Amino acid sequence: MENSEGQFISESDWQFLLKQGYLRLPGAAGGTALEELRSAVGGILAKYPHGFIHTPPYAHIRPQPRPDAPKPSDHTPTVIIPHIGFLDTRILKPLANPKLHALLQRIVGADFYLSHTWFQMVPPGAGRLSYHKDRRGSINFNILLDDIGPKMGSTCLVPGSHINTPPAQFCMKDMRTAHPREIDMTGNAGDIVFFSSEAWHGRSENNSQKWTRRLFYNFFSRSSRDTTPWHGVVDDAQIAAAREVIPEEYHHMFEVDPARTKALSEVKGSTLKRFGLGQSSSNDLARDYFYARSVYGKSPYHPDWPGFLLPYTSGLVQGSRFSARKYVSSMRPRPTAIVAAQAMLSKLRKAPVAKRQDAD
Ligand SMILES: O=C(O)CCC(=O)C(=O)O
Q1: Using an 8 Å Cβ cutoff, are 219 and 134 in contact?
Q2: How confident is the model at residue 359 (pLDDT cuts 50, 70, 90)?
Q3: What is the percent of the chain where pLDDT is above 70?
Q4: How far from 115 is each of 44, 191, 225, 229, 253, CA to CA, in Å?
Q5: Which residues does ligand 1 sit against, CB inside 6 Å?
Q6: Each residue of 226-269: pLDDT tens digit?
Q7: Given strand 183-184, what is the order of strands in its sheet?
Q8: What angle do CA 75, 224, 270 make, to 5 degrees?
Q9: Count of domains in the chain?
Q10: 6: in domain
């Protein structure tokens, strides 16, 4: 898993990732690594053939196995196995690679977390997952366990949309339909595909006759999250077993320390910069705008904490400079009016009835 430059990815691949928000690495987990991953997943699927009932990742609830197969009409029509790296630690072995570790550190800074691992198997006929952006300060990669072509249930994404774009709901008439510039994260079994959580992304429909299987790995910068989905859900023995397959100097991936995150999340600078970096802003337009203005095209490094990142940033923010024109011109009047009306309605619904009557 290294290229001719002795790195996990070449400099031109790095530039591509910065600009486009995704990167395909053909065969990076191929050969015996792929065989081992498939064997581990096969053993887990034999035990949990229908996967687990969907549980929000940060609910800190232990997921329960599904008694029956998901149906295409279900809210979650795919077979999902959360925390799969802790069910068979062979799935975590790719993370022991120092070159991969260095790349992840370049993206999510010193002391990053392994936030989440999961497996997803997409049945034939499964529909699309709508476009969205996820919380900031993280990076994902998939390992493809099957050859996956276009419209076979892979992650889909709009290239370059991780920078200078508002949340998808302000920009798309229907977030369930394919964007004109959409690409599918296709490839062969054993390929690794990186994608930014901040790009407009979703999952394409599976129009093929085959189930398609992928492993997901998600990492967070320590200044952007004070916990992980697995914390309090997997037991101590599982964490100890996971640490066994990872060199000691990378054990920070399994260490949760909210006080440290709190210290790292302190930001100095203008009121607007502190507002922009005060919370993960992917669905709040005003905060999102000031975040964008404060970080794009600039160094993400925290001035007071060498090697650590400013909260909610990643190494990818350096990819393009902030452009107010590009940001605002991505918005569409109708979707924006709809989001604004929905926000107003939800505020009214939350207001106490007496207060509303007074106002009337
Ligand atoms: O590939 C998929 O199933 C969608 C992934 C996704 O939306 C995510 O990881 O946030």
Answers
A1: no
A2: very low
A3: 95
A4: 20, 21, 9, 6, 8
A5: 120, 129, 134, 140, 155, 201-203
A6: 999 999 999 999 999 999 999 999 999 999 999 999 999 999 99
A7: 129-132, 201-203, 155-157, 183-184
A8: 125
A9: 3
A10: no
Same domain membership, residue 282 and residue 204:
no
What distance in angstroms lies between residue 130's CA and the mean position of ligand 1's atoms?
9
- Say how many Å lie between the CA of residue 41 and the centre of ligand 1: 19
Q: Is residue 232 part of a domain?
A: yes
Tokens of 147: 């050859």
Task: Answer yes or no: do 221 and 239 share one domain.
Answer: yes
Pocket test for ligand 1, best of 22, 139, 193, 201 (most atoms within 8 A of CB): 201
Report which residue type is found at 78.
Answer: T
Give 327-337 pLDDT, tens digit per residue: 999 999 999 99
DSSP result, 261-296: HHHHT---S-HHHHHHTSS--TT-HHHHHHHHHHHT
Residues 105 and 145 in one domain: yes
Provide the residue range defining the domain that includes 268.
259-324
214 and 343 assigned to the same domain:
no
pTM: 0.94
49 vs 252: CA distance, rounded Å: 32
